[in-house]
Design goal:
104 residues; mainly beta; 4-stranded antiparallel β-sheet; 1 helix
Length: 104
C-alpha cells in the first residue's frame, strides 16, 4: 500500500502540473522509496521525499528502467514499469503503463 500510495502521489502531482514539473518515484535499494520532482532523480536534491520501506520487503525491478518511474507534467505519461514486491508471505505486482495508469 505504501508503494502504491507514493506512485499515485507522483502521478497526481505530475498531472496537476504542480510547479510545472514531472514527478517520479525511485526505488533506492536497499531501504528507501524516494518521491522526486523533475524528469531525473538527483540524489542530493533537498526536496526529495524519502520513505523507508519495510525491512522484510524486497523489490524486483528488472522491468523498470533505472529503478524508477517518471510521469510527465500535465499529460501524466510514464515509462512502462513493472514492480514485484515480495515479502515472506506473498508477491504483489504493480504495473505502470505508457499512459501513466497504475495497476495493482
Amino acid at each position: 500500500d505504501k508503494v502504491a500510495a507514493l506512485l499515485q502521489k507522483a502521478r497526481s502531482s505530475a498531472i496537476n502540473n504542480v510547479d510545472e514539473k514531472s514527478y517520479g518515484v525511485r526505488f533506492d535499494e536497499p531501504n528507501d522509496l524516494v518521491l522526486f520532482k523533475g524528469a531525473t532523480y538527483i540524489p542530493s536534491d533537498p526536496l526529495n521525499y524519502r520513505v523507508a520501506k519495510s525491512k522484510t520487503v524486497t523489490y524486483d525491478l528488472t522491468a523498470c528502467p533505472a529503478n524508477q518511474v517518471v510521469w510527465t507534467a500535465l499529460y501524466g505519461n510514464a515509462n512502462v514499469c513493472s514492480i514485484d514486491i515480495k515479502d515472506n508471505v506473498k508477491t504483489s505486482t504493480i504495473t505502470i503503463n505508457a499512459e501513466g495508469g497504475i495497476n495493482y
